[in-house]
Amino acid sequence: MSWSGWGDPARARELPEQVRTLLHDLLGVRAPATPAASLESVRLPPVALSGPMVEALAGVAGAEHVLTTHEARVRHTRGKSTPDLLRMRAGDGSDAPDAVVLPGSHEEVAALLRLCSAERIAVVPFGGGTSVVGGLAAARAGFAGVVALDLARLDRLRSVDTESMVAEFEPGVRASEAERLLAARGLTLGHFPQSFEYATLGGFAAARSSGQASAGYGRFDDMVMGLTVATPAGTLDLGRAPRSAAGPDLRQLVLGSEGAFGVITSLRLRVRRAPAERRYQGWRFPSFAAGSAAVRALAQEGPLPAVLRLSDETETMIGPARPDAIGAGGSGCLLIAGYEGATVADRQGAGAAVLARLGGEPLGADPGVAWERGRFSAPYLRDSLLAAGATVETLETAGFWANLPRLYDAVRLALLGALGSPLVMCHISHVYETGASLYFTVVTPQDADPLAQWQRAKTAVNTAIVEAGGTITHHHGVGRDHRDAYAAELGPVGVSVLEAVKSRLDPAGVLNPGVLVPPAGGC
């Protein structure tokens, strides 16, 4: 994983000259005045932990699993949001942990949490490092130091129950590895977010991830049948049955908790038979409103594809997430429908009848195949655009169908008001009978302070989403970037519930401080 960008550094590409010219002519994008920092030149604060404290951590996890090197600290600094990358490209490693600790068992995680709680050391659980909401930058004030708790050694598939269709994994298993292990048994999770190649199963649960095939397989939280969680107060072992009426479901306290309440050390996940066939098809609609009506019809009446996504006019025009294809998407609004499993032809035919009845023009399999091939590539294009002098970021929300047009307009107007004349694209990518998500991508030329420039825009958008009645996040999580807006969404009583859970499970407040839970009196 690149320390200052996305994914495999070997897949990074410079934008073609014609694309750089287009960005300059269309948006006024100019190359940055200073080159990006090297890993060696990133500025880090001195290690705050004392020698005896580092030795105490080593006494739990083993000396070889406690790292304080420059490179280890840099690689565990922040996540992969655009503000995170802008800071790293500028050589700012001020949020670096003092040490990286790699526990090898639930017992070691529990012992480390007890130690850190007693010594007031902040702990940031670290999976794939793919957070895009400031979820990996702990508040330091009042703590003796910060430890990144890297779960990479907890990387086993523990068991598969093919009668119940449940598999137990450790949290550090990457999604791509989980699919490989399950495919050997003819199974799948069906969870393919854009971070699929690098994110971990524990991270999916902690952030309530939603994959690109969520219409067919559900969100990740739908897949979680049980969890084991280490907390400073003790261990939670949750989930004895698929559903229960035994009081509130405490699994829901952990799902979406972003490491603020505990550290997931085991997950029992629902699995499915691997699909016998996959078919992806493209459709064109004359407008985003017409396409949205067709998507809603499939969500409410069926047949619902496994993958269903609709790009607005701007995103369709810009085209696939490939540097050599920018501007090649055509007019109207592109819809991708992907059917998986058995009887694919019958369900695809029934879905096509609905889409055609509502004004869709069939485009054949090529657009769907092109999307499938490039669906994990967009973050690499973001890196290329950042290097060329454009600020690129994504944000998402969700709402009920009746409110979706208002929400769509509110976000676009907030971005235009904050940034002047940015390029704003949007798609619907996760659908339900009652509503859907909206996923926006914005491109704007970097000004003299691109970090402050984006923070102004993000603040405006967060306010607009709350005022327009949307949720502050559908699947990226809360982190630090959405924390205040999340408090406004919850209200004072909701915030007090979070505070009560935090104080009971983490009385010293060492777990990911500053993330998710608003500071006292902050609502």
From TrEMBL:
Residues annotated as site: Important for enzyme activity: R309
Cofactor(s) needed by this chain: FAD
InterPro entries, alphabetized: Alkyl-DHAP_Synthase (IPR025650), FAD-bd_oxidored_4_C (IPR004113), FAD-bd_PCMH (IPR016166), FAD-bd_PCMH-like_sf (IPR036318), FAD-bd_PCMH_sub2 (IPR016169), FAD-linked_Oxase-like_C (IPR016164), Oxid_FAD_bind_N (IPR006094), Vanillyl_alc_oxidase_C-sub2 (IPR016171)
UniProt KW keywords: FAD, Flavoprotein
Highest taxon of the lineage: Bacteria
Transmembrane parts of this sequence: none
Keyword Membrane part of the UniProt annotation: no
Organism: Nonomuraea mesophila
Active site feature: Y439
Family the UniProt entry places it in: Belongs to the FAD-binding oxidoreductase/transferase type 4 family.
An example Gene Ontology biological process: lipid biosynthetic process
Protein name (Swiss-Prot/TrEMBL): FAD-binding oxidoreductase
Residues where substrate binds: R382
FAD-binding PCMH-type domain span: 93-274
Binding site for FAD: P125, F126, G127, G128, G129, T130, S131, E258, G259, A260, F261, G262, V263, I264
Gene Ontology molecular function: alkylglycerone-phosphate synthase activity; FAD binding
A matching Pfam family: FAD_binding_4
